Amino acid sequence: MAALRRNLIYGFRRLSRSPGLVFAVIVSVGLGIAANSTIFSMVSRFVLRPAPVGDPGTLMALRTTYEGDRCCNNFPWPVYTDVRDQAQSFSGVAAYYELLPASIGGSGEPERVWGQSATANFFDVSQIRMYLGRGFVASEERLPVIVLSHRLWQRRFASDRAILGKAIPLSGHTFTVVGVAPPGFRGLDLILDPEFWVPLGNVEQLAPSIPNRSARDWNWLAVAGRLKPGVTQSQAAAELATLAQRFAKTYPDTDKGRGFRMDQAGSLPPRDKATVLLFIAALSVVVLLVLGIACANVANLLLAQSASRQREMAVRIALGATRRQLLEQMLVESLLLALAGGLFGMLLTLWATSALSAFRIPAPVPLDTTVSIDWRVLLYTFVLSVGTGLLFGFAPAWIASRPILASALKGEDGFIRPGRRLNLRNVLVVAQIVMSLVLLCVTGLFLRSLQRAVGIDVGFRSRDLLMLSVDPRVHGYSPERTTQFLEQLRQRVAAIPGVLSVAATDSIPLSGGNRSDGFRVEAGSKPTDPNPIVDLFMATPGYFETMGIARLAGRDFANEAANAPKVAIVNRAFAERFFPGKNSIGQRVTGGGVSYEIIGVVQNIKSRTLGEDTRYVLFRSLAQSTGSDPSFLGYGLVVRYAGNPTAVATAVRGQIHDLDSTMAIYNPETMQEHLRQALFLPRLAGTLFGIFGFIGLVLAAIGLYGVMSYSVSRRTREIGIRIALGAQLSAVHRLILRQGMVLTVIAMALGLPAAFAVAGLLSSFLYGIRPHDTMTFTMVPLFLALVAFVACWVPAWRATRIDPQNALRYE
What we know:
Blueprint: H1 2-16, H2 19-48, E1 59-66, H3 77-86, E2 90-104, E3 111-118, H4 122-126, E4 132-133, E5 145-148, H5 150-157, E6 167-170, E7 173-180, E8 196-199, H6 203-206, E9 222-227, H7 233-250, H8 252-255, E10 258-264, H9 270-308, H10 310-318, H11 323-357, H12 375-400, H13 405-409, H14 424-454, E11 465-470, H15 479-494, E12 499-505, E13 515-521, E14 533-539, H16 543-547, E15 551-554, E16 567-571, H17 572-578, E17 588-591, E18 594-602, E19 617-621, H18 622-625, E20 635-641, H19 645-659, E21 666-670, H20 671-678, H21 680-714, H22 716-724, H23 729-759, H24 774-800, H25 804-808
Parallel strand pairs: 3-8, 5-7, 14-19, 16-18
Antiparallel strand pairs: 1-9, 1-10, 2-3, 2-9, 4-7, 5-8, 6-7, 11-20, 11-21, 12-20, 13-14, 13-17, 15-18, 16-19, 17-18
Helix pairs in contact: 1-11, 2-9, 2-11, 2-12, 9-12, 9-14, 9-21, 11-12, 14-21, 14-23, 14-24, 15-19, 21-24, 23-24
């Protein structure tokens, strides 16, 4: 400890005499560590953090699987009860309906909220301690009681601690508050963001549109089970496999081929896990490249410093110091620098995670994607800082602690010779440029992808559209009354000054809220698609005019009666694929057991995502569909306006509340805002990779500049002699410039194949470009070569300004 204390004191004194070096190292290391800590905060949030429940290691999420399915599903009610009653590996098995839309009233304007409907044992199985009150009891399975989330309690009820026992209006029904969940509890799913919980028996009142709740082949319940003490996951999985075989024999019509899967509660959904992990892995590779560039940069700085300390090291060895003591002293200095860089990086990470949390995934349901710093991130940053200090500090310390005594005592450079190209600093510079090239190519791909995504033709109007949503269904409206309400609202809004046209729909394109279903063509050509799927939308008259979707043939909807023959309008891709060379008007298709007559054809649109291939789309009359297929997400009003959107929005809200003062209004936004949200993934990727690429480029340029500057300073006497003997200044300039550009060419030859290999892994995240985009892989190397040329040219220019007389006296 005494030796460590002496090394620390000496290290602080030594570093305090080199503030420029300290600043450069802290900034370089801090940027690299911040990039890695920011991405690791995503890993901690979405991969490592358990559900906020008691003993999270024994709480399992159960799912059903089927032969031929790529993933898994929820449970039917009868299958859940069978597992609950027959499985002996679990102390309790709870079920819940994952997202339940509702309108909450009380003081202030009605608000759209999302919650969950759960079995009475949900909170007991979760083992959470309520912030106020309690969870449900067995006798409340069908009673109107409610548990509020801590956020909803604070926001809607002003943190009223006397809330317990009070009655609150929820979707036209009265519920009694029995508890407030603890802060941070958002249910058992990783990113869903429910704000209340009611007993599962109330789902019939709050979500009457859920069909076949008691059917054995209708998957609608998420299930979680608590392992009994001493029972392992493998034992529970084996028992579930036995139950699956038993159920298949007892219910062969519905359960044959059904199995069970078990994961820890709160983990990534299986359907999304591969995509999320691949994206995080790509980011992790990029930030490791940034850190590698930073380490190479700092190692070069410390190598330069080590050369100037050779006399010091030789004197200390002559006075009796061992090489191990010298090595330990220099490693302590490196660790001090790395820990200071880690502290700076953590401050940058605080800012970066806050900025990441501002990104919102465009989804029709509430999602919690906030990222923050927890103990895992702190521990990771500390370990990374120590590892980084050892990584960039060991080689300079090893070399500096072994000087050639005779040369070092005379002040000569004992381990770097003029003109020697293959030295450690040059190797580090080549590594920096290689990593920078890979990083910049990836950055260029994502920036090009973002540019292409912004320019994608979505097929509908992108400006002067205002959208607001309502959900009459959760207010107890019948399908007929819902249709009547929307038509009255449409007529009222059309009369508002500044409104050019208005229509209603069940889902705005690119919101992810529309439904898809299989279909078949009743006559005409037989499709070769093995499983044709069509995206379904509902629309009122005037929808296509309002949205700016070109009508190519046929007519618009015209307030068709609910009991009239069903009609539909299809997009161009649908008509051309299934009725090639024919008039599709008057043809019939069947989907979801309903037959439709095609009355019109419209231009193709982007339906679900910006990067999708052209999909088949079928628009149904809203008036004819609300009864047979009520929208789970409510209905959106689309208003084309001229003038101030804020004033129009205020007027529209007024008309809604004139018709029903209790109606909750949600998702108010313009189409421009909506399209910005649809650009979430390319914007996020472009922002992150752009920042990391810029950092890597700057660090690499500084590293190359530093090596060339140091090379000039060490060769001052040689350059002076050359000039004194008559060498042309241009020859000296080329001599220095050639040294740096040779390193750059070597790095390019090594870096391009690596960049090609990495780019091939990113194709699923790119929009409108190939992973080996010609422009990117042409412009990035040229740009990096230009930066390298400038970084070499400045030291080369300085070399030509050397005075031969001063150079010959240089020591």
